[in-house]
């Protein structure tokens, strides 16, 4: 018998493979990361920078497919974890606070 994993998330996660541009709210230094997954209320991306929990970022998800629109939003960092595939990088989990135009 197979045991199924019960999904408790409010939104499904969709894998993404694209560039994520980000800057701390109120600052002008632009940095880049690699998108890993996206949901209706959050994002996970990898970067070389350890961004503290609670930091607000303005992000721009830049899809590699031209028929998809970029996502520009303000997110709050809710989790920071070492990247399992590259010890020099960090996984940044952000909760979407506001969608920007």
CATH fold label:
Thrombin, subunit H
CATH class: Mainly Beta
Total number of β-strand segments? 7
What fraction of residues sit in β-strands? Answer: over 45%
> Which series of helices and strands comes N to C?
EEEEEEE
Query: Largest sheet, if any?
Result: 6 strands, antiparallel, barrel
Layout of strands and helices, then pairs:
Blueprint: E1 14-15, E2 19-24, E3 31-38, E4 42-47, E5 56-62, E6 71-82, E7 90-99
Antiparallel strand pairs: 1-3, 2-3, 2-5, 3-4, 4-7, 5-6, 6-7
Describe the overall structure.
The chain has one domain (14-99): Beta Barrel (Thrombin, subunit H). The chain has a six-stranded antiparallel barrel with strand order 2-3-4-7-6-5. A hairpin with a 7-residue loop joins β6 (71-82) and β7. It has no helices and seven strands. It is an all-beta fold and 101 residues long.
């Amino acid at each position: 018998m197979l045991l199924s994993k019960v999904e408790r998330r409010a939104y499904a996660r969709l894998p993404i493979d694209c560039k994520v541009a980000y800057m701390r709210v109120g600052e002008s230094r632009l940095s880049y990361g690699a998108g890993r997954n996206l949901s209706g209320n959050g994002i996970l991306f990898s970067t070389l920078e350890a961004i503290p929990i609670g930091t607000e970022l303005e992000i721009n998800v830049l899809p590699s497919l031209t028929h998809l629109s970029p996502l520009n939003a303000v997110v709050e960092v809710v989790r920071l974890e070492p990247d399992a595939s590259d010890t020099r990088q960090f996984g940044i989990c952000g909760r979407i606070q506001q969608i920007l135009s």
